[in-house]
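Appendix B. Raw example, untouched.
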Amino acid sequence: MHTQCFLLLSTITLPILHTPGSRIIGGSKIPITATPYQLILLRARVHICGAVLIAPQRALSAAHCFPNPGPYSVKGGVTNLQEPGFVSHINMALIHPNFTKTNGDYDLSVLFLATPFPLSDKIRPVALPSEGPEGEIRAGMVGKVSGWGKTTHNSDELRSEDLKGVDLPVVAQEKCQKKFDYFQVITERKFCAGVEKGGEDACTGDSGGPFVVEGVLYGIVSDGLDCAQPGWPGIYTNVQVLRGFIRENAEV
């Protein structure tokens, strides 16, 4: 039996996952109405990661986005970071009990929000994949990744003020594993997406954000080697494989 990890305000300190590309490079500015499920994860009112709305009072993010005690909150309904939007305090972040900082496996957290988000054309939950074989991610599927992270790997800017999005294809699992053989194991809880030529990717500040195919959330931005480097795709948490954990705990 596993002991589940909770983050309640400032009661628990979790290990830091070292992700040099913790990851939108090569994308374009998009309005929040294009990705109304996209949230900003804030710690002490400062943008640190992305998150994804899955129900009015539930969201998902990456486990490694919670290395230290809070207070944490999420903001939605904005294209620019400076817009007021709608903010909800995070009462609890449920970190997957099998999450490990060594290789970033099970990099998922379920967020329990204090105040439900009011739904509109700017705020709307994303659909989740089915748990059967028909819901599995497949090589060649193209997903939209979005966030306010760095727009160039070497930029001194820690974030983009405007929401960016980029469309990336899923890389075959075997090819993904070969790429990262010397760095980490690409388990079934992960998948890769990116273009061989590089130049398009998630980057620092995009972690915890969505990878969405035709309105369905298949991935959470998790890890990578730098950002947008040729031959190196980004690594995403496989939402479909962890669908049971989400259903049991978020009741979605």
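End of appendix B.
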